[in-house]
Every structure is written in C-alpha cells, then in structure tokens.
C-alpha cells in the first residue's frame, strides 16, 4: 500500500484503488485495480466476496445516497492522495440491482420535477394572460379611442415576464393609472413618432422627447376622445 495506515471509515467496508501494483494474497491474481485489506494483506474483490458489486463513481449525491440505501452490501472506494497525505473517496461499490432501483428513484424525482415545472409554467401563462387582459381593459378605459388590438399589443408588451417593463413593476401589477399611462406613452413614442429614428441619429434622449412631445400628446388626445374601434 502507498499509505501506511489502513484507510478506515467508521461503520463500512472500504475498498482501495492501489497506487502501486498489488497481487491478491489469496488467488495471486494481479495487478489489482481494486483491493481489500484484510489484516494488512491485499485481497481481490472476488476473494473478499465483493466481486458481484458494481462501481458507482462519486459526483451524484442523490444517486449515491439512494444506492447505498438500496444495497444490502456496499463498500466505499478510496485512493490515497500523496500530495494531501490522505485517502480520498472515489465512489461506491453497490449491488447491481440496488443501483438500478436508485437510478429509477432519481429518474422518478426528475420526472416529478419536470411535471411541476410544466404545471408552474402553465399557471404563470394563465396569470400573465389574465393580467394582460386587465391591463388592456384599463388602457381602453383611459383611452376609449385606442383600437382594442393596439391596446392588447401594448398590454402584452408592457407585461411581458422578465422584461422589467412597467407592467411587471408593483405599480403595474396593481394597474395604477400612472403605470398604465406610462406604458401607453412609451408605446406611442416608439410606434407613432420618429422617436427611435431620432435616438439612432444621435439626438440626445431629452431632446428627442422634447421634439416628439406634441405628437405623443396629439395621439393621446385623440384616443381619449374618440370612441373605440376595432
Ligand atoms: Zn483473490
């Protein structure tokens, strides 16, 4: 063995990945990829009655825990780290059937999580749709002349999840009048005025807003007065 001390872990069998070439003291087979130390003497897994176990590398915590739970017989696989001067866990030897059951349990969990995510996504979509509809209704209430389709589009845009837009803000969620007006003003600015073109041509934002202010006010006035269409 590379390490002088026997790698002991409390309450469990330990199997070693040897750093140097070792032969089994019982059947003389070797070099051994894995061995068990019995009274300081290396034995192969078959001679140690562990030959039927399969190796599960470390890394998947849930699978490891479950495989150990499912397996009547299991062993921790360790390797000596010369630099650190200690044995380090490489994985687990477990019964084949136990590993299968553990994998099935993990898969069932993953499936349950997937279904829950899908359910949550559907619920959010319904909420978003309701909210956008309420938002659109509020737009039409404040601006009866605004075409219904346009109101729907503005509401959907303002309330898009993850957009950080006014519809997602607290005031927007509460459908405060100022939040709704802000969303409408923003939409009119971009769609009904040369605002975007001004910005692209290097006009500073405040100056661009000043130039289009009359056009925005004109559209809003029209929408406030006219009877809704569409
Ligand atoms: Zn042997």
Key descriptive features of the protein:
single chain; four-stranded mixed sheet; disordered N terminus; 2 domains; 7 helices; binds zinc ion; two-stranded antiparallel sheet; alpha+beta; 230 residues; DUF2293 domain-containing protein; DUF2293
General description of the model:
There is one protein chain. By secondary structure, the protein is α+β, with helices and mostly antiparallel strands. The protein folds into 2 domains: 13-105, no CATH class; 143-225, no CATH class. It contains 7 helices and 6 strands; from the N terminus they run E-E-E-E-H-E-E-H-H-H-H-H-H. It has helices at 61-70, 96-142, 148-158, 170-173, 177-192, 195-200, 205-225, and strands at 13-17, 36-38, 41-43, 53-57, 75-81, 86-95. The protein has a 4-stranded mixed beta sheet. Strands 2-3 form a two-stranded antiparallel ribbon. Helix 1 packs across helix 2 (96-142), helix 2 (96-142) packs across helix 3 (148-158) and helix 2 (96-142) crosses helix 5 (177-192). The longest helix has 47 residues, at 96-142. The termini are far apart. Mean pLDDT is 89; it is low at 1-5. The protein binds zinc ion (ZN). The site of zinc ion has 8 residues, from loops. Zinc ion (ZN) binds at residues 24, 26-27, 29, 43-44, 46-47.
Detail the poorly predicted runs: 1-5
What is the number of beta strands?
6
Which strands sit side by side, in order, in the main sheet? 1-5-6-4
The total count of helices amounts to 7
Proportion of β residues?
5-15%
Average pLDDT confidence is 89
What multimeric state do the chains show? single chain
> Which term fits the overall shape?
elongated
Radius of gyration: 35 Å
Bound molecules: zinc ion
Distance between the termini: 85 Å
What is the helix fraction of residues, given as a range? 40-55%
Order of helices and strands: EEEEHEEHHHHHH
Counting helices, strands and paired strands, the structural category is alpha+beta
Q: In total, how many domains does the architecture comprise?
A: 2
Major pleated sheet: 4 strands, mixed
């Amino acid at each position: 063995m590379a390490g002088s001390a026997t790698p002991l872990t409390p309450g469990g069998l330990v199997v070693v990945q040897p750093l140097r070439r070792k032969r089994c003291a019982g059947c003389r087979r070797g070099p051994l990829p894995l061995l068990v130390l019995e009274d300081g003497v290396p034995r192969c897994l078959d001679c140690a009655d562990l030959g039927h176990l399969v190796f599960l590398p470390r890394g998947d915590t849930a699978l490891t825990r479950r495989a150990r739970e499912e397996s009547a017989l299991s062993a921790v696989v360790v390797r000596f780290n010369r630099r650190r001067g200690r044995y380090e866990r490489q994985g687990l030897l477990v019964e084949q059937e136990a590993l299968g059951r553990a994998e099935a349990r993990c898969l069932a969990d993953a499936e349950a999580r997937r279904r829950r995510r899908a359910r949550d996504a559907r619920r959010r979509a319904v909420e978003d749709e309701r909210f956008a509809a309420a938002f659109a209704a509020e737009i039409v209430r404040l601006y009866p002349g605004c075409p219904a389709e346009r109101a729907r589009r503005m509401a959907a845009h303002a309330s898009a999840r993850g957009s950080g837009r006014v519809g997602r803000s607290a005031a927007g969620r509460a459908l405060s009048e100022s939040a709704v007006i802000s969303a409408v003003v923003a939409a009119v600015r971009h769609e009904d005025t040369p605002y975007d073109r001004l910005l692209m041509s290097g006009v500073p934002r405040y100056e661009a807003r000043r130039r289009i202010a009359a056009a925005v006010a004109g559209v809003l006035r029209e929408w406030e007065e006219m009877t809704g269409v569409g």
